[in-house]
UniProtKB/TrEMBL annotation:
The keyword Mitochondrion does not apply. The chain holds residues 186 to 565 of 566 of the full protein. Its cofactor is Mo-molybdopterin. Keywords: Metal-binding, Molybdenum, Oxidoreductase. It catalyses: nitrite + NADP(+) + H2O = nitrate + NADPH + H(+). Transmembrane segments: none annotated. Signal peptide: none annotated. It is an enzyme of class 1 (oxidoreductase). Its EC number is 1.7.1.3. This is Nitrate reductase [NADPH].
Length: 380
């Protein structure tokens, strides 16, 4: 049984498939700045491989064929430790909305929870590559991609520029929210590529190859790509489409609830917003790829006719760029609440989310980021 090493999992996770385990974070768990390790979404293509921290070795191979090995202890002893906050988002996050609002898209039908945020500790990939002998100041011509191999055979790659960027913060991570990486998230170490589709953050990594080519794995070459809305599986020209790396701007509503002026705790929140009547509180996340900061979150309580700006909540973000999500909140008097709440975010490059789903439909349902619309039901 290849799944014999799969860990016991928190019952709060919403399981989409058990073997391999694919489970999303429930909406209640997406409200905190860092998602608890137990309820951080899980996306496994196969089983959780058997890993011993003591005998685990990470091999780095350079374009000239030179190899160097590192244990977890080597990483901790030889390199500067770095802590960053970063959000991981699966390219299939919100695929369910694409299926519901446009047409059926192929893959796991994730809601808003194929995304989570954590504080990661590890060492910089660029420091390792330099130690292994790669000349970062004058990269060899044939150093074009960094390929990552996982112990269970999953693999992916990123462009070398991201891998060695001083402000790219690509890590070999061994801690998550102050704990050793849990088995589901890559124990004893994973690659963490902030700002990039989570498919490139290879778990249980045991080999890194710098070379001319992208990873030859099916997840680099025959998956995690986008096509036009007219293309279905038989017409897809996989070799011509670029592998998804940086992600587009995204936002979603994770909580929509009635707030009453008769409740003491709710009253405190109402006061902060200068409201003295029963209201609706709406909360969620916004995030963009490439470390692009979220500069504004627009929210509507009447299906997009009138817009307001949500409050951007303050959190302790760490890292060279805005790798972590922006949480937000907005309160509106109940009488103003129509049938649908809608959210859209804007990042620092003024990228916006599309209003419609159909023009962005792609048969694999990747990168669904159209306006998130949630029906409001008064609790009475
Ligand atoms: N790494 C390995 N070795 N095996 C995998 O199946 N899945 C990838 C990526 N890294 C995967 C992997 C995908 S598609 C995603 S979305 C993220 O891991 C999920 O990371 P998480 O399970 O820690 O949330
Ligand atoms: Mo993913």
């Amino acid at each position: 049984d290849p799944f014999k090493n799969d860990p016991k999992r928190d019952k709060k996770l919403m399981v989409l498939s058990a073997r391999p385990c694919n489970a999303e974070s429930p909406e209640e768990e997406l409200g905190s700045w860092c998602t608890p390790n137990e309820t951080f979404y899980v996306r496994n293509h196969m089983w959780v491989p058997e890993m011993g921290a003591g005998n685990h070795k990470l091999v780095i191979e350079l374009p000239d064929g030179e190899e160097k090995e590192y244990t977890l202890e080597d990483l901790k002893a030889k390199f500067q430790e770095v802590k960053i906050t970063a959000t991981l988002q699966c390219s299939g996050n919100r695929r369910k909305h694409m299926t519901q609002e446009a047409r059926s898209a192929n893959g796991l039908q994730w809601g808003v929870g194929a995304i989570s945020n954590a504080e990661w500790k590890g060492v910089r990939l660029r420091d390792l590559l330099a130690d292994a002998g790669l000349n970062l100041n004058d990269l060899p011509e044939d150093a074009k991609h960094a390929q990552f191999m996982g112990a269970e055979a999953y693999g992916a790659s990123i462009p070398i520029d991201k891998a060695v960027d001083k402000r790219g913060d690509v890590l070999l991570a061994y801690e998550m929210n102050g704990q050793p990486l849990p088995p589901d998230h890559g124990y004893p170490m994973r690659v963490l590529v902030p700002g990039t589709v989570a498919a490139r953050s290879v778990k249980w990594v045991n080999r890194i190859v710098v070379g001319e080519e992208e990873s030859t794995s099916q997840w680099q070459r025959r998956d995690y790509k986008c096509f036009g809305p007219n293309v279905c599986a038989p017409q897809a020209k996989w070799d011509e489409a670029p592998a998804i790396q940086e992600m587009p701007v995204q936002s979603a509503i994770t909580s929509l609830r009635d707030i009453s002026c008769h409740s003491a705790t709710d009253r405190k929140l109402l006061q902060v917003y200068g409201l003295e009547e029963d209201s609706v509180a709406v909360e969620g996340y916004a995030w963009s790829g490439g470390g692009r900061k979220i500069v504004r979150v627009d929210i509507s309580a009447d299906d997009g006719r009138n817009w307001h700006q949500a409050e951007l909540l303050l959190d302790e973000s760490r890292g060279s760029k805005a790798w972590a999500w922006q949480r937000w909140r907005w309160l509106v008097p109940r009488w103003q609440a129509g049938q649908y709440f809608v959210v859209k975010a804007i990042d620092e490059a003024n990228n916006v989310q599309p209003a419609e789903y159909e023009p962005h439909w792609n048969f694999r349902g990747n990168l669904t980021n159209s306006w998130h619309r949630v029906e409001y039901r008064h609790m009475g």
